[in-house]
Design goal:
CATH architecture of the largest domain: 3-Layer(aba) Sandwich
Oligomer: single chain
Distance between the termini: 14 Å
CATH topology of the largest domain: Alpha/beta knot
Bound molecules: S-adenosyl-L-homocysteine
Number of strands: 12
Structural class: alpha/beta
Number of helices: 7
Number of domains: 2
Length: 248
């Protein structure tokens, strides 16, 4: 298990974090800390902003309706965001919320929605996506918030592809070679993972992807998984076989 403190409440802040430079808590944060967690002045929490590492902060109430976070000690140095690019066809609300949170917990560094032919929803609320990413980051102990990108079209995402990055394409029609064997046979390189919509990829999309030299097709076993299940399963086998679940 990680050596750092993963019990204290953690909050993401936008402000810079430096010793003795008080950061005002937002009303939502103040309500959560004081009324939900029932913390009091002098209690400590952890704060991070993606730039300055993680700081232990003491709660300060300079005025009746004000709550400040006072950084007292940097407990973790900032580490770079994970490089894993997670591409997905957007799902409907609750499933999308779930998938965004799980992708963050599983180590995605960038979340890129891709509008495929059978995608179920045409609009994505980026603010909602970012709020889910922040909540997951606070919960799972990472030090930066994964980038939540605006959706791109299928052709558009391939057109601008950096071919140095290998794209692992989860194809439910692929023969069930073990995904671990598939991943371990890949040359080492920056990685991306693509999971399709509930309705699956179109024949054209599959043919296009399977013909690309930088694509590795991966099976997730003999059953058809729901897209949000596939996201967690694919990220798990990827992190366990070639990702950051391997210690050292
Ligand atoms: N085409 C299926 C549903 C697709 S499931 C149907 O029409 O019922 C949604 C996405 O999850 C797929 O596009 C694929 O990316 C992934 N997925 C689901 N099961 C999978 C499997 N057994 N192997 C690889 N990918 C899978």
């Amino acid at each position: 298990m990680p050596s750092h403190d993963f019990k204290s409440p953690r909050l993401h802040v936008d402000a810079d974090l430096a010793a003795a430079e008080a950061v005002p808590a937002t009303p939502v944060q103040a309500n959560y800390l004081l009324n939900v967690l029932r913390l009091a002045e002098g209690d400590s929490i952890l704060a991070f902003n993606g730039r300055d590492g993680e700081w232990r902060c003491e709660l300060r109430k300079p005025a009746k309706k004000k709550l400040d976070l006072l950084p007292v000690e940097r407990v973790r140095l900032q580490t770079p965001a994970p490089d894993l690019l997670y591409l997905f066809a957007p799902l409907k609300h609750a499933r999308l919320d779930y998938m965004v949170q799980k992708a963050v917990e599983m180590g995605a560094g960038t979340l890129q929605p891709v509008m495929t032919q059978h995608v179920q929803t045409s609009r994505i609320n980026i603010d909602r996506m970012r709020a889910n990413a922040i909540e997951a980051a606070e919960q799972c102990g990472i030090l930066s918030i994964p980038e939540c990108r605006e959706p791109v079209g299928f052709a558009q995402f391939l057109a601008g592809w950096d071919t140095a990055r290998r794209l692992v394409f989860c194809d439910e029609r692929e023969d069930a070679e073990s995904p671990i064997d598939t991943l371990r046979a890949m040359p080492a390189s920056p990685l991306a993972l693509l999971v399709g919509p509930e309705g699956g990829f179109s024949e054209d999309e599959r043919a296009t992807l399977r013909a690309l030299p930088f694509v590795t097709v991966m099976s997730l076993g003999p059953r058809i998984l729901r897209a949000d299940t596939a996201a967690v399963a694919a990220l798990a086998v990827l992190q366990a076989s070639v990702g950051d679940w391997r210690q050292g």
